[in-house]
Here is the input.
Amino acid sequence: MEGFSCDLHIHSTLSPCGDLEMSPRNIVSKAKELGLDIIAISDHNMTENSFYAHELGEKSGVLVLFGMELQTEEEVHVLAVFDSFETAFLFQKTVYDLLPPVKNDPDFFGDQVVVDGNDRIVRFEDRLLLNSAQISITAAVSWIKSHGGLAIPCHIDSPTFSVISQLGYVPEGIPFDALEIRDIKNAHALAPLILQRHVPFVTFSDAHYLQDIGRRTTRLDLGEPSCKGIERALKALGDNDGNLSGCTSTKETTRYDG
Here is the structure.
């Protein structure tokens, strides 16, 4: 087993709240500089920039997975991460059709830009991505898991757009792979609201600016650097360590030694 430093929650220029310096090229270059092994571009309700980041990652030795930060009809943010762009793009098309047809206002929300590996603009997305798709968290996770992806509720300790802020608790019966938390010190306080047991915590940067990439990472021991390998590692951590153990935090970096 080999240890991999992972940051699976990074926004690019395609997120209206993402800085325009967050191009695939700059993101992969920064990840390489920081020694990150596995990253995912996880834009709001979209996946397209992950295609270009993945190509660049193959050349630089950084594994780039294909992610999305989905906003469900309950206004819960969920990370969906896939091994293949084809599957991620299929999910994007599914989600896009479920978004309200509201036009983006770039002056208010920010530009939503697909950028290639050479920092060239491919297109601007006109539909506002900061909206809820008309899909429930249960149906969304079912889709993700049935297509071989990872499903991780985002920033569960956030007062907005988290499963706890919106539902009041983490329900049983939804096959989450992990729970993303911004500050691991909040885990014990949240424990009574987490009805699922044996689901480990992870922490990622949720970077919108280059300097934020890698500010929070999760280190996983993987036999296979892939979604399936990550799924197995997370399951082993949950089964062996329970919901709260196995984590230490140093300088906003959470390390798992499974």
